[in-house]
Amino acid sequence: MIAIFSDALNVELIDLLKDTLTGIKYDKHEINTKLAELGKVHPELAGQIEDFGEWLASELEG
To answer: Would you state the torsion angle of the CA atoms of residues 47, 7, 23, 37, taken in this order, to the nearest 10 degrees?
Structure first.
């Protein structure tokens, strides 16, 4: 299970991120792959998905 808390106004994006990341390994490569796929399916959200991915990658490294 994954929980994402945000003050973002785009609730759809948060739900998409939760659905995309649920059930995958806690692995930077796998997360990046899934987020890239999500960005292709929802090009209108690609920039926000990329921003989220960059933030999450920095947290995984830290």
So the answer is: -10
